[in-house]
Amino acid sequence: MKATKSKNPIEREFGVPIPGEIVARERWTRTALKRLPAEGPLHLEELFGRSAPLVVDVGCGNGRFLLASAIARPDHDHLGVDILPMVLRYATRRANQRGLANVRFAACDGLRIVRQYLVPASVREVHCYHPQPFHEPEQAQRRLIAPEFLALVHRVLEPGGLFFLQTDNEPYWHYMMEVVPAFFDFQVQDRRWPDAPKGRTRREILALRRRMPVFRGWGRRRDLPADTLQSLVRALPPPAFDAGPRRRDLDALERE
Hints:
Layout: E1 12-13, E2 16-17, H1 44-48, E3 54-58, H2 64-72, E4 77-82, H3 85-97, E5 103-107, H4 110-117, E6 123-129, H5 147-156, E7 157-167, H6 170-179, E8 184-189, H7 202-209, E9 215-221, H8 226-235, H9 248-255
Helix pairs in contact: 4-5, 5-8
């Protein structure tokens, strides 16, 4: 008996399926935010046409995690931001083809999105997977995970909101463990995410294929007054650590 081809073939990335299936063209959506407001903030109810818990992925890359989350949680809205338009093209195309109405993508850096476009207590979850470690010492000030960013994430999260972190750079992880618990009741995730054992992100998939350690954790927003947050920003150390050698093979694969 001759096997028939699937009408909607599964997309794969390094052998791991991309979440969701492509739907009929008439059901495609438009998920790209072509232009952010000049000053901010984002009006979420107007953007999504409803009021729902918001999940934000800072440095979302090609959108693998947000696709999976949006499909699994249709009652949540999702916002992905990245500074690289090229990877956002993949993210928006895939979300559009899957007919997702609860996802939006925007070209924006992580610090700017939490400082300028998200209002206090408006976000249920913030995710940040594999932030760029910037190996050159003169670029250390560009590292995203720093006291100022953490205070802003704390500000935009709802009471009890969650912050998720992941990296394959061990020095960066040690720095995170030094500063993140000041803002969040942080827990190390000592095994792979159960919803995506082969990797929530493209970078994680590649790191696992190279048998590299991946460091994961999440934390619940601590109840801290504004003056305490500012004191922490002033007191905690900046991310001036030595990030170690660049993994050029992994970086090259990720750009493919």
